[in-house]
Amino acid sequence: MGLMKYLVAGRIEAGCDEAGRGCLAGPVTAAAVILPPDWDNELINDSKQLTERQREKLRPVIESEALAWAVAMVSPDEIDRINILKASILAMHRAIDQLAVRPEALLIDGNRFTPYHDIPHTTIVKGDGKMLSIAAASILAKTHRDELMAQLAQEFPQYGWAGNKGYPTREHRAAIRQYGPTPHHRRSFQLLEQPTLFDNLNL
User: Fold this and answer.
1) Taking CA 139 as the corner, what is the angle to CA 88 and CA 4, rounded to the nearest 5 degrees?
2) How far apart are CA 126 and CA 103, in angstroms?
3) Which of 13, 148, 164, 180 is the most buried (most CB within 10 A)?
4) φ, ψ for residue 26 (rounded to 5)?
5) Can you tell me whether residue 160 is helix, strand or coil?
6) Going by C-beta distance under 8 Å and a sequence separation of 6 or more, which residues neighbour residue 158?
7) pLDDT tens digits for 166-189?
8) How far is residue 177's CA from residue 6's CA, in Å, rounded to a whole number?
9) What pLDDT sits at residue 139?
10) Please, how many CA atoms are within 13 Å of residue 43, restricted to the half-sphere of its CB?
11) For the segment 126-161, what is each residue's pLDDT rounded down to a tens digit?
């Protein structure tokens, strides 16, 4: 079954999603996308269901054919200051701010959102696997963030960001333990693995 093109026919809906929420390093990135009314692309799906190569091929298609799209980021410093949930919502707000077309409704991936001005919103759990516009937003958020992490990896090659994109892989945590955190790390996150219960039992 394909993704739904809209929640309400004839309404200008912007799909919104974020990427990088669970990462130890780098910004949280959000995208907002308004698609043409009858637009479809059978290759589009939740970005997590696609390969990196598929996402990279779909990104220019979405960017050239969408009625409007925008990507915005919230920095690690801001994440540390306001917490990751608020930062994820702030990134979405910033993306919506930049849209060249004003949406009549917002479709938000997940179950938490802070109202954006007077525009009505609907939160949709796993929306990136249900709504075409949210799936398109998930692809843009992910590809733009991955591109930035690959650039930062050139500056800090020891953390493996070109591959792990800042997520908490074993390799990434080992590098933090060895080299310490960078300015791009989120200090409010558990950067090193917490001791397990068994570590304290003196077995």
Assistant:
1) 95
2) 21
3) 13
4) 85, 170
5) coil
6) 175, 178, 179
7) 999 999 999 999 999 999 999 999
8) 46
9) 96
10) 12
11) 999 999 999 999 999 999 999 999 999 999 999 999
Across 186-197, average pLDDT:
74
At 56-103, the pLDDT tens digits run 999 999 999 999 999 999 999 999 999 999 999 999 999 999 999 999
Residue that the structure tokens 């007077």 belong to: 118
The position carrying tokens 């309404």 is 11
Identity at 46, one-letter amino acid code: D
- How many angstroms separate the CA atoms of 62 and 192, rounded? 37
**Domains recognised in the chain with CATH numbers:** 13-179 (3.30.420.10)
Q: SS3 for 52-112, per residue? A: HHHHHHHHHHHHHHCCEEEEEEECHHHHHHHCHHHHHHHHHHHHHHCCCCCCCEEEEECCC
Looking at the DSSP bridge assignments, the partners of residue 28 are 74
Which pair of tokens denotes residue 74?
Answer: 């919230």
**Cβ atoms within 10 A of the Cβ of 182, count?**
17
